[in-house]
Amino acid sequence: xxxxxxxxxxxxxxxSGCERPESVQSETPSNEQIQSENPSNEDAQNRxxxxxxxxxxxxxxxTYFAVLYENKxxxxxxxxxxxxxxxxxxxxxxxxxxxxxxxQEISNIINKEHSEVxxxxxxxxxxxxxxxxxxxxxxxxELTKEQIDLIIHNTSYGLFVLNSDNKVFSILNDLIHRLPSxxxxxx
Length: 187
What we know:
By secondary structure, the chain is α+β, with helices and mostly antiparallel strands. It has 6 helices and 7 strands; from the N terminus they run H-H-H-E-E-H-E-H-E-E-H-E-E.
């Protein structure tokens, strides 16, 4: 029995004298590590929004969208506007561009899923909130009347918004033809 007590005493002394090497530390992060890696909710709330997170209605609105066909060319006009908050973020020399996503029926006719990248105007600091882009897709063959009607009257066009790296960060689906109101006056 004395042998077992001596053995347990030696074993206990041996274990208590051993230390863990510093290279093998606990996998549980310390409180300091947690605080430095995860900003507090207060910090997240105080952080200013980036323009990519705001590029959706009502901050960004397409006010006019028209598709016309003429001489083997599809011509698309998009007027859009920003609210003041998004405008303030964009006027600091932010680059963005567009691509138009074609509906499946149109994609089948012209053999393209989307337009080329459409460069946009630089946002100036004059307070201007309304902008316009025009895009033409030149075709190699003349279209039939049915195909033209489908292209002009389709309401399923999409708009991709791209950042300066040409990565899509916002998608607006089902753009419909929005035409400005026309008032007729007899002169």
